[in-house]
Design a protein that fits this description.
The protein has one domain. It is 34% helix and 23% strand. The strands form six sheets. Strands 1, 2, 3, 4, 5, 21, 22, 23 and 24 form a nine-stranded mixed β-sheet that branches. It is globular and about 65 Å long. Bound molecules: zinc ion (ZN).
Length: 549
């Protein structure tokens, strides 16, 4: 492995309280080290900005829904082919790039770790196969557990409390799949949609046939994740996404889980005032107030970017609502007894009241939030826009003149109903950008080797030209170093290495299979013994992060 000394750059490493100091960063054996010998390769970073590699806490890059979206939108990718080269595989780009292209493009942006945020456990094989085919980035995936009939049975038995059986079941599921964390999507609501195209509307609506409520699912599964001590807390896509007035549901969900650690996904979609069926307005400031007094809760924004997107979600009823708005192509399927899935290609228009409001609410969350460690950058790729739009989003946060210009182009009736015209002059610093794009997500994910440049960290480093145009700066890093090797130079990939999978592991009583097996037998079309993914080619190598207090 190469020894490298990065000299003379301005280093932004918020985890280690380094804010723009000029200092060297030394790398050896794939790790950040305190020093290297004279024969180490030198990278002259004078006048440049040095940050840890980017960490995406919430994106959709692998698995059946991503693949189905690829099939559903051939027109999006036909015009963006990637040719095979001596080094690189061919592929297609667009909003949902093929596997290899996904890895290449994240790497070219300076990202080195990405979390697939919604994997059906039944599809873990496919998720693993695609992540293994996604080079250049380390990965992890979150397992969907909010609408699983077997878990519903256990929750009914415990009357919504955390039981040892439930803890064991959650740990068993992670062990069976290679998953890293636990995701709840519209808890209870997807099952109701699968039964009769319905949904739950409050945390206390009962799921017919199971006598469990969204609140019980949140308490029981969220509590089990917390008590197991998984490295990442429960990751929640709350009920009533996109529905005017849903800020009440979101606040109630936060109150239900508060006191325990929890992460709220794409908070922008959950911040709306108004009445269901009516026009939404912003209630982002109230949500931020709640966060300010509850440091145990974090969120990513799920910023909407004007232009094309592809919505893909386990939230089946949400997808059906988007189909009704859009009237174009859509796809919906049930994943047996454990989750659902819907895909709707979409376009966010600056002239639309609702879309401009969504765009503005995302910016409010970034700009009015007090603590950047608590509110992290995401577009819920590709739901709010492609990850390729991150540099533009960063410019919106860092460059007030640019932002004001963009605000002027958006639907003014929507903008007037937000705080964006209230002299909001905040401009993010480079350190704050480093927090919301790498240090914060890594800390929240419990990835201790990621998101910082202290001795012992993985040598994932991104070096940018310090350009006044922040969009250009973040779109074209000068160098990207991944795992201690130079991966990107001036917009060109130099290698195509496999990334490392991160899985988590928590102790459980193996006898839990005696409880699970008959419940599976009653419901699944696959045999219990064939459900866990044991194939070493898919599971290994992986960095296993042990659960613990
Ligand atoms: Zn998502």
């Amino acid at each position: 492995m190469t020894a490298i000394r990065i000299t003379g750059g301005r280093v932004h490493d918020p985890t280690n309280e380094v804010d723009g100091e000029i200092r060297d960063v030394c790398i050896n054996g794939g790790k950040v080290v305190s020093d290297v010998g004279h024969d180490a390769r030198r990278i002259d970073a004078r006048g440049m900005v040095v940050m840890p590699g980017g960490v995406d806490i919430h994106a959709h890059i692998a698995g059946p829904k991503v693949n189905a979206a690829r099939k559903l939108t051939p027109e999006d990718r036909r015009d963006d082919p990637l040719d095979r080269t001596e080094l690189l595989r061919s592929g297609t780009g667009g909003l949902v790039p093929s596997t290899f292209a996904t890895g290449y493009r994240y790497s070219l942006l300076g990202y080195t770790t990405v979390v697939e945020a919604a994997a059906p456990p039944l599809a873990a094989r496919q998720v693993l196969a695609e992540l293994r085919d996604t080079p250049m980035i380390d990965s992890a995936f979150l397992i969907l557990m909010g609408n699983n009939q077997v878990l519903f049975e256990l929750i009914r038995e415990s009357r919504g409390a955390v039981s040892s059986q439930l803890r064991d079941a959650v740990a068993w599921w992670l062990d069976a799949t290679g998953g890293y964390g636990v995701k709840l999507v519209n808890p209870g609501g997807v099952e109701v949609f699968k039964q009769d195209n319905g949904n739950v509307h409050s945390l206390d609506d009962e799921v017919p046939g199971y006598a469990v409520t969204p609140r019980q699912v949140l308490e029981a599964i969220g509590g089990a994740v917390d008590e197991l001590g998984l490295p990442h807390p429960v990751h929640i896509h709350a009920n009533n996404l996109g529905v005017p007035g849903n800020a009440d549901t979101t606040l109630e969900t936060m109150r239900t889980v508060s006191g325990r650690q929890a992460h709220f996904a794409h908070l922008q979609f959950h911040c709306y005032g108004g009445k269901p069926g009516g026009q939404p307005r912003s209630r982002a400031p109230e949500l931020l107030d709640y966060l300010a007094s509850h440091p145990e809760i974090t969120a990513d924004v799920g910023q909407v970017m004007f232009g094309p997107a592809v919505t893909m979600t386990a939230d089946g009823p949400l997808s059906a609502a988007l189909r009704d708005l859009d009237g174009g192509k859509w796809l919906n399927h049930d994943t047996e007894v454990e989750t659902g899935c819907g895909i709707v290609p979409y376009r966010y228009r600056a002239g639309s009241y609702v879309h401009a409001l969504q765009w503005a609410i995302g910016l409010e969350l970034f700009l009015l939030g007090k603590d950047p460690w608590q509110v992290m950058l995401s577009t819920d790729h590709p739901n709010g826009g492609s990850f390729l739009s991150y540099p533009k989003l960063i410019r919106l946060l860092m460059d007030r003149a640019f932002r004001d210009d963009q605000i002027g182009r958006a639907n003014q009736r929507a903008i007037r109903r937000t705080a964006l015209l209230d002299g909001l002059d905040r401009e993010y610093t480079l350190n704050e950008i480093a927090i919301i794009t790498r240090a914060g997500p890594a800390r929240r994910l419990g990835l201790r080797h990621k998101g910082h440049l202290g001795v012992g960290a993985d040598a994932d480093v991104t070096i940018y030209h310090d350009r006044a145009d922040r969009e250009e700066m973040f779109a074209t890093p000068r160098y990207v170093i991944k795992g201690g090797e130079l991966a990107v130079e001036e917009g060109e990939l130099r290698r195509s290495d496999d990334g490392l999978l991160h899985s988590s592991s928590a102790r459980f009583d193996p006898d839990v299979v005696r409880v699970l097996e008959p419940l599976f037998g009653d419901r699944y079309t696959v045999a219990f013994e064939h459900y866990p993914v044991r194939d070493p080619a898919l599971r290994e190598p992986a960095r296993i992060v042990e659960a613990g207090p």
